[in-house]
């Protein structure tokens, strides 16, 4: 068996392995969790280099997926908040969170349109960068911090993390097209960076969960269940929208595959920490779905040979 074939067979299992490793070594995450935002930055930069300006076309697919992402997230929050604000925040972040930086990679592996998905990834991330500071500030309005101060603080941390990689990618295209092309051709790297990021943030979330009192367990179970429901719903809705717009794979991955690394980080930083259980559980849900999709696609291809 050659190395390329071995890597192809192992790839569907890398993300589950990263999650399990994060759970096992959660005690060490406090020493390395500071690098998570830098890994998110690098993943976004590599993804944004994938889309050239002439490929950046906002289509009906983009608008439809974005509407579900923003309006759907807010609707779920307001529906659930009267029962539990923590559960509402966790469910909200699972829908509001932008498309995963590795989604174009998975989309390509499944046979979908990479440029189309990468375009939506940019739109999805920009929308979160612009709206997150306001929404997070309003959700934490009872923290005793003036609205303007909280808004500026969150904006200063969230917006550069998401917007700056896009600016750098565009600048690199102008300054050195060859280097830009070389980065764009290394999309697989973002997949492995994503695995390292998952290892860190899952470990961090597990550490938090382990420190929670036993009476918080029912709420965490509810968060995990709600996370699974919205995960399956988003893959299903995205697939329906994508089929109507000509690319069911890009639609499903664009809406269902979330940047859970960013989601967990935002939940731990700006929302009630227990809400991070939802995106942490979403990691398992979405990667179970993606691993299954990759497995069945690979089996179909092998059976056709």
TrEMBL record:
The keyword ATP-binding does not apply. Keywords: Membrane, Transmembrane, Transmembrane helix. Signal peptide: none annotated. It comes from the Bacteria. The chain crosses the membrane at residues 12-29, 35-51, 63-81, 87-110, 117-138, 158-177, 189-210, 216-237. The keyword Transmembrane helix applies. InterPro entries: Na+/solute_symporter_sf (IPR038770). This is Transporter. The lineage of its organism: Bacteria, Pseudomonadati, Bacteroidota, Bacteroidia, Bacteroidales.
